[in-house]
Each structure stands twice: as structure tokens, then as C-alpha cells.
Design a protein that fits this description.
By secondary structure, the protein is of the alpha+beta class. It contains 5 helices and 6 strands. It starts with a helix and ends in a 6-residue tail after the last helix.
């Protein structure tokens, strides 16, 4: 039954991803920042950068690539690890599948954003800095899902938030936004393989 639920959720993600793909075909024609493959590349790169910099307990290289709010959250987590003299490792970390599941395009470009579903795997362990012994963590590599949201800053995408998988239903069910487009026009976009 759990496997059926997972399959159903994956179908929902892929269905929403297809709608986003078709919408992006149109948005890209008037604003090149909406290039789907580049958006996916940015998200995958940030996924690796954030996780490797957390392992190093130094996120200074992320300055300017994230909003101040998420930067402060990550920095606070790292400070807590340093105080406890602990390290976090995500062994065998991999993003196995990604899909853009939500797009918000506004007249005011500073409000533009997109959300990426990331299905990955890792064995997360907490290690004592001094003894190098495992204090807690997974016994084996486990699957996980996260939602990474990026917001537009000037003419680039920066990381805004990282949400756990329990947010899936609300994000999948949330309507894409193209300010100024009617529901009829949005539905029409979703029926087209390519922009005109």
C-alpha cells in the first residue's frame, strides 16, 4: 500500500512537471530566464553545493546564491554543529530525479519563483569531531524527497527555501501563476507541446 502511495505521488509529480514544461515553453519566448534546462542545472548545482558546504561546516561560498533568510537558517545549523563539535555527512548523496513542479511568473520580476522537486538518496550520519565515531544516523542509504524553491534576484535564480516531502500535496496542487493569463489561457498552454 505504501508503494502504491509512492507511485501515485510520483505520477502526480510527473503530471505537474509536464504542465510546467509546457508553460515554460511559452514563458521562455518573452523572458529567457525561464529556460527549463538551465533552471534544472541551477537547482542540481545548488543541491550539491549546499550539502557539501554543510558537511564542511562553512557556507560562506553560498553568499549571494541564497536569500538572507535561508542563509541565516543554514548558518545557524552549522553554528550548532560547531558548538557541539559534530559533523554531518551525507554518504552516497545523489539526486536521482528532479522535476520543476511550480512556476510563478509576475509582472514584477522580483517576485518570480519556481519550485523543484528533488528525489534523492543518502546515508546521513552525525559524527563526533574528536573521536570520529558515529553518534547517530541512518544504517543504510535511504531515499528522500525535498522541494527547493528559487526566487529571481535581478537576472539570476537564488535559493529561497528547502521544504520536506510532507509539503508535497500542497505544492503539487498549487496552481502555476503567469500574471495576466486567464485560466482559459493557462489551460491552453498545457495542451501545447511547444510555444508558438
Amino acid at each position: 500500500e505504501q508503494e502504491e502511495a509512492g507511485t501515485s505521488q510520483l505520477k502526480d509529480v510527473k503530471w505537474k512537471g509536464q504542465r510546467v514544461h509546457r508553460l515554460l515553453n511559452f514563458l521562455y519566448q518573452s523572458d529567457k530566464i525561464w529556460k527549463e534546462q538551465e533552471m534544472k542545472n541551477i537547482a542540481q548545482q545548488m543541491f550539491i553545493e549546499v550539502n557539501t558546504n554543510i558537511e564542511k561546516r562553512d557556507i560562506t561560498k553560498l553568499k549571494g546564491k541564497t536569500t538572507q533568510e535561508i542563509y541565516d537558517k543554514l548558518d545557524s545549523s552549522i553554528t550548532e554543529l560547531i558548538v557541539k563539535k559534530q559533523l554531518i555527512q551525507k554518504r552516497n548523496l545523489a539526486a536521482r530525479d528532479i522535476e520543476i513542479v511550480l512556476v510563478k511568473n509576475y509582472y514584477d520580476n522580483k517576485r518570480d519563483e519556481f519550485t523543484m522537486w528533488i528525489s534523492g538518496q543518502a546515508q546521513q550520519v552525525t559524527i563526533d569531531e574528536k573521536t570520529e565515531q558515529e553518534l547517530a544516523g541512518d544504517d543504510y542509504v535511504k531515499d528522500f524527497e525535498e522541494f527547493w524553491t528559487f526566487i529571481r534576484k535581478e537576472n539570476k535564480w537564488i535559493l529561497k527555501s528547502i521544504e520536506p516531502s510532507f509539503k508535497m500535496n500542497s505544492l503539487i496542487n498549487e496552481e502555476n501563476i503567469d500574471e495576466g493569463s486567464t485560466k482559459f489561457l493557462m489551460d491552453w498552454y498545457y495542451t501545447r507541446e511547444r510555444g508558438i
